[in-house]
Design goal:
Layout: H1 4-20, H2 22-32, H3 37-50, H4 52-56, H5 60-74, H6 79-96, H7 101-116, H8 126-137, H9 142-155, H10 179-194
Helix pairs in contact: 1-3, 1-10, 2-3, 2-10, 3-5, 5-6, 6-7, 7-8, 8-9, 8-10, 9-10
Magnesium ion binds at residues 29, 33-34, 36-37, 77, 165.
């Protein structure tokens, strides 16, 4: 069970790492997109952190839904509705089955894929989210999970983008890490650091 203390720490850790890596995310997005992913993510998680006490006072499923709603309203771009869907669905699923974190995460990733009309291997955040869901379901350790995540982020470099703005570049998207894959890694590392 995730406590209010852990949730508060996780939100602050995410906001802090996204802020610290905003320039890196923007640089990744400048190479194959429009250079706003760092600013988008920072705006979103700063807004979540600004609402910290209201959010953590809620039961976990409602808190996750509140985070998702805030992200949808503030992140913008393609990633806002997608990360928003991830947190909203996590909240909905945990309201139904409070103990099944791995199942809730898998269904949340499926909801992101449905929202993005995308699948894993297309050089997006899903290239990291699905292996993460698999690793959680397999009961792997935190260190193993973060190693898998790091490998999958690096693997996006050699892929051609099939979804999102980067797909407009076709073969020229090859050779660059996907910004959304990298931001997913930052979220995973921040959460792993506090749970
Ligand atoms: P935008 O592309 O609208 O400028 P961002 O720059 O904030 O939005 O986010 C870009 C990231 O969103 C990409 O790096 C990719 O990981 C993710 N993304 C974009 N489109 C999709 C999609 N259809 N499915 C999954 N992820 C996507
Ligand atoms: Mg962008």
């Amino acid at each position: 069970m995730i406590s209010e203390v852990q949730l508060r720490a996780a939100i602050l850790a995410i906001a802090s790492t996204i802020s610290a890596h905003a320039v890196e995310l923007t640089d990744l997005d400048s190479a194959i997109g429009d250079g706003d992913h760092g600013a988008n993510m920072k705006r979103g998680f700063d807004a979540v952190a600004a609402d910290l006490e209201t959010i953590v006072a809620k039961p976990l499923p409602d808190a996750l839904k509140a985070i998702g709603t805030k992200l949808v309203m503030t992140v913008g771009g393609a990633s806002g509705p997608l990360y928003g869907t991830l947190f909203l669905t996590l909240g909905k699923e945990l309201a139904t089955a409070p103990a099944d974190y791995a199942g809730a995460f898998r269904r949340a990733v499926d909801a992101v894929a449905a929202r993005g009309k995308s699948e894993t291997g297309q050089k997006t955040m899903l290239d990291v989210l699905y292996p993460l869901a698999d690793a959680l379901a397999a009961g792997k350790s935190k260190a193993e999970i973060l190693a898998i995540v790091a490998t999958e982020v690096a693997a996006t470099k050699d892929r051609k983008a099939i979804r999102g703005r980067a797909s407009f570049l076709g073969d020229r998207s090859i050779g660059h890490i996907d910004p959304g894959a990298r931001s997913t890694q930052l979220l995973a590392e921040a959460v792993a650091g506090v749970l």
